[in-house]
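Dear Dr. V.,

Thank you for agreeing to look over these. As mentioned in my earlier message, I'm a first-year student in the group and I'm still getting used to reading structure tokens, so any feedback on how I've presented them would be very welcome. I ran two proteins. I've put each sequence directly above its structure. The first is here:
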Amino acid sequence: FSTVFNHDNDSLPRVWTGKEDIRTITKDARAASLRLLSVMAAIRLDEKPDKVESLLFSSLMDGTAAASLPRDRSIGDSVDPLASSMWEEVSPQDKLITPVQCKSLWRQFKAETEYTVTQAISAQEAHKKNNNWMPPPWAILTMAVLGFNEFMLLLKNPLYLMILFVAYLLLRALWVQMDIAAEFRHGALPGILSISSKFLPTIMNLIRRLAEEAQGQRPPEASRPQQSLASQSFRYQTPPPAGSSSIPESSVSSNISSSESEFESSGLNLIRRRSTNIPEAESS
């Protein structure tokens, strides 16, 4: 019973969402259990046909055996087919469970499985209440008829639509921040008390976030110089490529000026040496 009742046709655990027919599922689970009881009632090694299963189904599942059986004229009551201690077409050596015992076991079985069925019905009703936030159809129709004038007023004045849209956004933000659906799971009164205690802090938190976002926005003119300065600092901080020399320009210019001065001084020395060598050659 637990296997058929708590699992679907794909052997997956059932989730009672409100769409399942608990009456049909319970009937199928009890039919599978009664079929197993009919198998365990007697030994059938010779595979001869018998009426154990049909008798159990007609007496315990359908409940039509008493109406279809003939009445005893002397007593005036219907004869219970499960009141005997023997099965028809089954030898006493192959009997494992008597009809009277089967009836007693079935009564005990139904009493023990009622709790499982009740829990499934309760879970289904709870799921319907948690997920059904819409009013009934007659209330929606009544609001549509009585609010026709207000609806036409909103169409004529689009400013009201903007106000309603802003109010909807604020209410949606409050709904998400306060998690109203989770607060009302434990009841109406605890939910109202919890929401009333969180209402003002949530509004202050939303106002603070809006103020921070408004202060964080900067004009594009003020951001452009910062971007240029950042790009210049990044350009100065980046190392030179591998193919270029790593010597700065100031050192290169100093090296060039020093080399030019050295070249000029060496040229003057050569001119002086030549001038001194010429008189020596003439005197000799």
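The second protein is here, in the same arrangement:
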Amino acid sequence: WCALSYVWGGDQQVKTTQASLHEHYNGIALDRLPQALGDAVRVCRALGVPYLWIDALCIVQDDPADLRRELSRMPEIYQYVTATISAASSTKADDGFLFPRGHWYRQCPPVRLQAVAESGERVVAFAYEKRLWESEPIGWRAWTYQEHALSPRVLSYRSTLLEWSCRTLADSYGLLEPTTLLRNSSDVPEPPYLLSATPWSDIVEGYSMRRLTFGSDKLRALSAIARVYYRETGKRYLAGLWEEDLPLGLCWVPAMHSSSPRIPRPAEYRAPSWSWASID
């Protein structure tokens, strides 16, 4: 199976609820789906993968028991996926990601070039500015952090190119220069690719930069990673920290901005005051 990682961008018209559950078991017409979901179905069919997991369809959205059950399965859903399809350039579910890529630029327009491939074949390519300093919309959504971190392979449809990454290789289609990179041997974990090889502080820092529609999801949107970390280390999880590493874990510092020197605490309780998850 494949899984879709995408930005909801608000409520969805087509989702599985207790009222629509039996209807969805019988089938969902492709033309009813938001464009990003429909595009993911098309990618699956092109890859020859028979199943696709999408949260809006595979979780009964108004059933708390089903939500808890499915969230507990998130590690397996993404760790054992054939590939995660990332709608990286989409700001909402209604935005598709299967479209001709343009060449974004700020100063220098793209230059059309005749290039020679390694096979000797002459091809047309473009040299253009790389968009390095701006993140794709999916990079700001908190829920997608664990989806990418747990996946063994990610097929990412970015604004200007198609990017493929796995545990050992990264490749981009749409750039002029060869981009297939074998990751440094020191960076490639040995099978079974333990998530706990990444320092927990690095995970918290990367995750905390992202945004949530509902602040109450602060810990829940990281729960799949925490569950895998627990399985690998046996440590005791304490609201975003680990008991065995607590002296160091308590040394977190919020990112301060000159426009807001004081970080306000949310009105509703979400985590103990000593946890980084207690503030935005």
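From my reading of the second output: Residues 79 and 109 are 40 Å apart (CA to CA). The first helix runs from residue 21 to 26. Does that match how you would interpret it?

Kind regards,
E.
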